[in-house]
Design goal:
This protein has one domain: Orthogonal Bundle (ABC transporter involved in vitamin B12 uptake, BtuC). It is mainly alpha-helical. Helix 2 packs parallel to helix 4, helix 3 packs antiparallel against helix 8 and helix 9 runs parallel beside helix 11. Helix content is 71%, strand content 3%.
Length: 295
């Protein structure tokens, strides 16, 4: 058996795959947070709960209406996105001009309410969501076995991340969004409905979280607390990449997933803390993050 530093290569490749999958989820969730903070300056602590809602919505749609995975992959983010729009319109907009700490506290409270409501309804035991038939099985690459669904998660996450970056950085709509957050009165003078742009941007960031939730449903156990378990890691990833940096969120999310996977191979005791160790080092050397702009 081929070894590397005393570790079988099959084990190493397997952990790299798991790390890349986790990194794909970190990238998607971090991207949603980066979009919301970078364009709206809202510290969205409800992001984990909205990620959970995406997964739970897919389960409920399947159990009650028989909606399959492929339909749920589009319907669930839309439904959760509409819920996010309602949150922004009736709650977050009322404190839009206050200090960032108010949005943090409000979204944290919203997350606790959402988590508490669904814990009361479904309990804390996990619910399973079957892998779609088209993505069952896998392919033997010679050095490892690659499940089709895991490969799909990585590809789907990368496509969505690239599409979001392209829309924000390279299109007229993205330029309107960036300009509206930097000088809202000027944009309104040109006839642009800035409040509507803000609402749709928040809804889009929420949809990214819900999309990640649907992707996660067949891999992880769907529980009302699944969002709370990943949120703190995602915030660390956003801080490392730079608050509000789109490309920083994506690249750092993928990198942290891989680093976490490698740590599980060579030093498992540190696998749950390595991301936070990296965050401390980055903040000491570059407080704005790897891709963030210095104040």
């Amino acid at each position: 058996m081929t070894m590397l530093f005393g570790v079988p290569l099959a084990v190493l490749y397997g952990q790299l795959l798991l790390g890349l999958i986790n990194g794909a989820f970190y990238a998607l969730l971090s991207l949603g947070l980066a979009v919301i903070f970078g364009l709206l300056k809202i510290i969205n602590f409800a992001h984990g709960a909205l990620y959970m809602l995406g997964a739970l919505c897919a389960v409920v749609l399947l159990d009650t209406l028989g909606v399959n995975y492929w339909v749920a992959l589009f319907v669930s983010p839309i439904l959760v996105g509409i819920f996010g729009i309602i949150l922004e319109r009736f709650l977050l907009r009322r404190i839009a001009h206050e200090d960032h700490i108010y949005s943090l506290l409000l979204t944290f409270g919203i997350a606790l309410v959402i988590q508490g409501v669904f814990t009361n309804i479904y309990g804390v035991s996990g619910m399973r969501y079957a892998i779609p038939d088209a993505l069952k099985g896998g392919v033997n690459l010679g050095f490892m076995f690659l499940p089709y669904y895991r490969a799909w998660v990585i590809v789907a996450a990368l496509v969505v991340c690239f599409g979001t970056w392209f829309m924000i950085e390279k299109t007229k709509l993205g330029s309107y969004l960036r300009a509206g957050t930097e000088n809202a009165p000027l944009m309104q003078a040109f006839g642009i409905n800035v409040p509507l742009l803000v609402t749709l941007t928040y809804g889009f960031g929420v949809m990214l979280a819900a999309f990640a939730g649907v992707l996660a449903a067949p891999i992880y156990s769907v529980t009302p607390v699944m969002g709370a378990n990943i949120l703190i890691i995602v915030f660390a990833v956003v801080v490392i990449g730079g608050m509000g940096s789109i490309i920083g969120a994506v690249l750092t999310g993928l990198a942290m997933g891989i680093i976490e996977g490698l740590t599980k191979v060579f030093y498992p005791e540190a696998s749950t803390t390595v991301i936070f160790l990296v965050m401390v080092i980055v903040l000491l050397l570059r407080p704005a993050g790897l891709f963030g702009k210095e104040a």
